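Why do we bother with holo predictions? Because pocket geometry can differ from the apo form. Keep that in mind while you read this record for NDP.
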Amino acid sequence: NKQVIFKDYVPGVLKESDMYITTSTIKLKVPEDCTNGVLVKNLYLSCDPYMRNRMRNFQGSYISPLKPGSPISGRGVAKVLDSRHPDYKKGDFIWGMTGWEEYSLITATETLFKIHDKDVPLSYYIGILGMPGLTAYAGFYEICSPKKGEFVFISAASGAVGQLVGQFAKLLGCYVVGSAGSKDKVDLLKNKFGFDDAFNYKEELDLDAALKRYFPDGIDIYFENVGGKMLDAVVLNMRVRGRISVCGMVSQYNLEQPEGVHNLMHLVPKRIHMEGFLVHDFFHLFPKYLDMVLPYIKQGKIVYVEDIAEGLENAPAALTGLFAGRNIGKQVVAVSHE
Ligand code: NDP
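The structure, written out:
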């Protein structure tokens, strides 16, 4: 059983060498004393920015740190090979928390979902039909209270979450601009996802001036994925009673000391509502979300771009690549295609 092991807690920038590949043996049967255990073959693994924060020895978080010397845990799509759980049988496809390894014995089965609709790529269940999809949905509709015609700005806009927020906002009739870190990503935002406009933030010396160019009348909704300097510039450009949905701050995850944000006093006179959220609080909306998004996917009204790294041995590079912006779209690792 090939595995990706997390070496030890990581200060500063996450590197590929903070993980290593090893091989162990595993019996492809659920042990008799493992009530409710499910043995799976992992097909697709998700690389998510929050995983870096589990590589710190920080106990106060909403999610526990990874255990040094153990396989990395994360969301994946898998096929059931053997089961002692009444809800899962051999041959079922599932998604949920699994391990960065070829085969996993899953005992925390409350995190698993059975896959019923297989007309779409299975990898979508760790992207548009999984946690990032629900994040975009809850973070936009529940946190931002969006209305037709509003001006929406999204950072890390071509990523797993951002590309969906932009498409949801366009379907609602908003004016949507995204920022991303390369020309290819900007082209994708404008030509594939239908954003009204987009810019490469790395080419802008003055982010405040860039935002004034794209939003001369200001921003109603900011979907925050990056934090730091971008947040500082956005606050200056928000309209009165604007909403900021704080989904994440990926620019800060590899820093030992988070950057200071200086312009928050503007929230007061502009009466801005700024709210952080965790997707975990919105899993009850999952059925409603799937009812909305599956038809959109099948009708081609929403598209989803994935960046698929082939093979478990490429998983460390895929994960570290998130923080260098190497992924174009949702970063997935294909362990096996069936
Ligand atoms: P992405 O697919 O967007 O990948 C991360 C992207 O972040 C990179 O491709 C890169 O894009 C950008 N990035 C990396 N480093 C920096 C930096 N220093 N400055 C600016 N941009 C940077 O990831 P996701 O869509 O999965 O996640 C997006 C955000 O949503 C993250 O902050 C994540 O933590 C958060 N999240 C929050 C959840 C919640 O429950 N609140 C759930 C899921 C995700 P580029 O090339 O454009 O710079």
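DSSP finds eight helices and 15 strands in the chain.
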